């Protein structure tokens, strides 16, 4: 009996020892992978940011992650094997906020400043518009549109005025959209066609900027005032066919994929865009995931269509929620603050210029309540801290009215550009997601320092404080406001360096791995998709980007120079750098 007991004890010890030694050893159970990528540096972005060598993919999902030896066991006769040769593989990038459907800008002139465009002064803008008119054979009476102008980067350090455009285009209505998209400059012909003159009142949530000492418009239209422009009295250009729009979608998806993006956002979708994307999805024309935010003004129309459902990703398309724009642009001096701008604000003739809320508090409250009632995720554009106060008020109002809690709804504050520390505490308490925009540190950090002062400018997109306060924060480019390049975006969150080389808020800089998490797993969290994407873990979608260098080990200044070599969506290559 004693011998039997000893034998049983020995066997149990052997089993436990075997289990301990081999507990992490994968067992393939006869399963072979469709594709294996090995011999690389795989930054998994899992809960402990572990590093692996290889990954196996089966049926579009991650089958296993581990060492080369681990993953080699999943190699079968039909397995495609790719040697990464030491290159870095990361999760596919998840776009926190951009405007995917902005490809319509190909019918307008890029008048952006370097490094985005060539424009350095107002003469350059006019020359670009004249060239566009000639190349496109635009006749008198037809509209000409430019986009991306930035007065702070022009030699004149001012907005163009209608007289700047009138001399070159006396017979064409011309409009220029500010780089932020929140202001529009119109020449005299465009103002006349639209019926905008000295007698036209400012619309709610907008300002018609006037010449000093009179009511005559300068041509600059802020926020909702731009909505007064009307393209009447002239023929519109021929509208693209459905097939042409599908080709545009294909090209745009490839462009996003070339930046390593496997999940994109259309950050303010028109009803036509929702319909087009839905049809494209049904025809299996989408190969990256597209999260559409229906513009709040069309919310009833979308809700009234039984074909549309919020929050369901199908065939790479989802209506993720609705988007409300509640204020303007900080660089355009229309973002709404509790404290005034420190420099002159066009259209404001007093000393307490705090910007423009584009909705009333009642409209804000009603919008969020409608979202909560219909179980729709709410995304709101808020740049200034006063607008964020309005959003927080609306969330509390909806919670009170419905006797529920917003915790778990993941309400998103798009930009959160100048959120205060106390507001971040509220974000944490209410489960609010901060969708930051760190590119501002580079493109407008110097401008914000001048307009707002060092203290406020230094706290733009405060990633480090958000992490300390346990607020989930994503990062975005707001494309086409800034370039779509995700590695440049990551660099701006790490370096916070301005155009002139100044550090904008050194204490808010984050590490490269934290910057990577903001555009991967945190992005997935923003869309309630963190269980299916955003990190390289077993069972998740096989969405990857292969990079030209190791972002964790290169000098920080080199991060922006890293190139996406290959993008993989659900195990299939959708972009390969030539």
Question: What descriptors fit this protein?
Answer:
578 residues, alpha/beta, eight-stranded parallel beta sheet, 17 helices, 24 strands, 30% helix, 20% strand
Briefly note the CATH topology name of the domain at 326-508: TIM Barrel
Q: Could you give me the name of the CATH homologous superfamily of the domain at 326-508?
A: Metal-dependent hydrolases
Tell me how many strands there are: 24
- Whole-number mean pLDDT: 93
* Shape type: globular
Classify the beta-strand content into a percent band.
15-25%
Span of the ends, CA to CA:
73 Å
CATH class category label of the domain at 326-508: Alpha Beta
The main β sheet shows up as: 8 strands, parallel
Q: What's the helical proportion of residues?
A: 25-40%
Give the name of the CATH architecture of the domain at 326-508. Alpha-Beta Barrel
Provide the gyration radius in Å.
26 Å
């Amino acid at each position: 009996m004693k011998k039997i007991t000893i034998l049983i004890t020995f066997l149990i010890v052997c089993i436990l020892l075997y289990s301990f030694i081999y507990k992490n050893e994968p067992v393939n159970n006869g399963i072979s992978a469709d594709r294996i990528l090995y011999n690389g540096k795989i930054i998994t972005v899992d809960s402990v940011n572990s590093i692996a060598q290889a990954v196996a993919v089966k049926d579009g999902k991650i089958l296993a992650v581990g060492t080369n030896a681990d993953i080699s066991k999943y190699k079968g006769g039909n397995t495609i094997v790719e040697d990464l040769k030491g290159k870095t593989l990361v999760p596919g990038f998840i776009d926190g906020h951009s405007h995917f459907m902005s490809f319509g800008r190909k019918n307008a002139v890029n008048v952006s400043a370097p490094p985005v465009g060539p424009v350095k002064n107002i003469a350059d803008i006019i020359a670009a518009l004249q060239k566009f008119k000639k190349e496109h054979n635009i006749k008198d009476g037809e509209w000409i549109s430019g986009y991306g102008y930035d007065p702070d980067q022009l030699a004149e350090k001012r907005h163009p005025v209608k007289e700047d455009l009138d001399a070159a285009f006396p017979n064409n209505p011309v409009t220029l959209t500010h780089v932020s998209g929140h202001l529009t400059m119109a020449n005299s012909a465009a103002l006349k066609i639209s019926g905008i003159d000295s007698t036209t009142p400012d619309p709610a949530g907008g300002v018609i900027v006037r010449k000093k000492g009179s009511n005559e418009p300068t041509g600059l239209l802020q926020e909702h005032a731009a909505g007064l422009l009307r393209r009447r009295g002239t023929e519109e250009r021929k509208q693209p066919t459905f097939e042409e729009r599908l080709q545009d979608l294909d090209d745009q998806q490839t462009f996003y994929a070339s930046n390593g993006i496997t999940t994109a956002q259309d950050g303010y979708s028109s009803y036509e865009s929702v319909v087009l994307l839905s049809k494209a999805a049904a025809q299996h024309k989408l190969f990256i995931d597209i999260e559409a935010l229906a513009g709040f003004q069309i919310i009833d129309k979308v809700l009234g269509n039984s074909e549309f459902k919020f929050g369901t990703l199908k065939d790479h398309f989802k209506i993720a929620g609705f988007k409300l724009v509640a204020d303007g642009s900080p660089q355009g001096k229309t973002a709404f603050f509790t404290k005034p701008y420190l420099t002159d604000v066009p259209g404001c003739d007093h000393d307490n210029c705090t910007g423009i809320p584009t909705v009333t508090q009642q409209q804000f409250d009603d919008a969020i309540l409608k979202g909560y009632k219909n179980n729709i995720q709410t995304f709101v554009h808020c740049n200034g801290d006063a607008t964020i106060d309005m959003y927080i008020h609306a969330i509390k109002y909806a919670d009170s009215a419905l006797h529920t809690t917003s915790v778990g709804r993941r309400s998103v504050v798009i930009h959160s550009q100048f959120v205060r520390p106390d507001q971040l505490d509220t974000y944490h308490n209410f489960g609010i997601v901060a969708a930051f925009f760190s590119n501002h540190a580079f493109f407008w950090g110097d401008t914000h320092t001048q307009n707002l002062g060092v203290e406020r400018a230094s706290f733009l997109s405060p990633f480090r404080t958000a992490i300390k306060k346990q607020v989930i924060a994503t990062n975005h480019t707001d494309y086409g406001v800034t370039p779509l390049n995700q590695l440049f975006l990551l660099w701006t969150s790490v370096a916070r360096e301005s155009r002139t080389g100044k550090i904008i808020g050194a204490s808010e800089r984050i590490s490269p791995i934290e910057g990577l998490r903001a555009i991967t797993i945190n992005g997935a969290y923003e869309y309630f998709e963190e269980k299916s994407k955003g990190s390289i873990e077993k069972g998740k979608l096989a969405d990857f980007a292969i990079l030209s260098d190791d972002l964790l080990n290169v000098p920080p200044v080199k991060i922006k120079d890293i190139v996406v070599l290959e993008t993989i969506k659900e195990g299939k290559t959708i972009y390969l750098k030539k």
